[in-house]
Amino acid sequence: MSVINVILSGGVGSRLWPLSRKSRPKQYIPLFENSTLFQMCALRNYGVVDKIQVIGSVDNYELSRRDLENAGIKDFDEIIEASPRNTGASIAFAAFSAQPDDVLLVTPSDHVIDGIESYNEAIQKAVALARENYIVTFGAIPTRPETGYGYIEHDENYDVLSFKEKPALDVAQSYLTSGKYLWNSGMFCLKASVYLYELKQYAPDVYLAAYNAFAKINEGFLPLEETMLIPPLSVDYAVMEHSKIIKVVPFDFDWNDLGSFESLWDYMDKTGSGNSGRNLVLGSSKHVEFIGVENLILVETEDAILVVPRNQTQDVKKVYERLEKEQPELLK
């Protein structure tokens, strides 16, 4: 009965454009003393699990291999998706490849976590619950009325009651005041057989199509034709919002999903890893002066410049979506 860290690495990091591109999403950018988020994730879990498994895209699996090699991790498995079909199917592929009683620790590859002792304690609690046939999610204890995260509602026994989408500010404040909500970290811990049972019960179309695609896997590569028949449902919609066996493990270690330039700024301020001052410049080798303005972020790459107010960085995704239609070459 192994514990397997399933690293999901297929995201594109659209809210960190133009730094994050399809050819090198944010988890592969060496932002932290020449380390990438993907490397930090793998190294963080390497000592507490029995195996590393990467679920990645045909577009970035070579980046994953390079990062693992540079991190000194040679023993890992990989499943390479022909096209992204969301996390419901990705976790199913990992479960199909595992033994029924194996515990899967499912982690995104783009999180920053500090406080490794507290992190390891949370993992141990989650693994114990997973072995009791619960599906376990991890919830960060909120410190502010954050509108950029989803929330998990729980009772006094930490049974999950509901999942909430990213709220408006007043709703986020009510969540914070109630003490019954945690930030949804997007990390999970579950037995392979339990996940597949729940997926088959609540999203049978995803289960069957993922099973048919996995049946034709060839040296780690999934087939395109069968993959495109998989409904693109997230694990939240496919399983988590329906299952009656979900527990949440609350945590207070430092966690940041770096989903926006604002969260990157916050992290750099907190750790002293950047000199942001009243404005923040990323990616530019030029000297930049700001006059009469504060809380602006300037991002420069070879082919693009982005200027965005600190409190509007979630809207970068809208720019990404527009460019996908109008100038897709700027996303490569």
Question: Can you give a write-up of this model?
Answer:
The structure is a single chain. The chain has helices at residues 37-46, 61-70, 87-97, 116-131, 169-178, 192-202, 204-214, 224-227, 235-240, 261-271, 316-326, and strands at residues 3-8, 51-57, 77-81, 103-108, 112-114, 135-140, 151-154, 160-164, 181-191, 246-251, 254-256, 280-282, 296-300, 305-309. It is α/β, with parallel strands linked by helices. It folds into 2 domains: 3-256, Spore Coat Polysaccharide Biosynthesis Protein SpsA, Chain A, CATH 3.90.550; 261-331, no CATH class. The strands form 3 sheets. Strands 1, 2, 3, 4, 6, 7, 8, 9 and 10 form a 9-stranded mixed sheet that branches. Strands 12-13-14 form a 3-stranded mixed sheet, covered by helices on one side. A hairpin with a 5-residue loop joins strand 7 and strand 8 (160-164). Helix 3 crosses helix 6 (192-202), helix 3 (87-97) crosses helix 7 and helix 6 crosses helix 7 (204-214). 41% of the residues are buried.
Key features?
alpha/beta, globular, 9-stranded mixed sheet, 14 strands, Spore Coat Polysaccharide Biosynthesis Protein SpsA, Chain A, 3-stranded mixed sheet, 23% strand, 2 domains, 332 residues
In short:
This protein is of the alpha/beta class and 332 residues long. 33% of the residues lie in helices and 23% in strands.
Q: State the CATH class of the largest domain.
A: Alpha Beta
Q: Report how far the terminal alpha carbons are from each other.
A: 41 Å
CATH architecture of the largest domain: Alpha-Beta Complex
What amount of the residues lies in strands? 15-25%
Poorly predicted segments: none
User: What's the total number of strands?
Assistant: 14
CATH H level of the largest domain: which superfamily? Answer: Spore Coat Polysaccharide Biosynthesis Protein SpsA, Chain A
Strand count, sense and barrel status of the largest sheet are: 9 strands, mixed
Oligomer: single chain
Q: Count every helix, treating DSSP H or I runs of 4 or more residues as helices.
A: 11
**Total tally of structural domains:** 2
Order of helices and strands: EHEHEHEEHEEEHEHHHHEEHEEEH
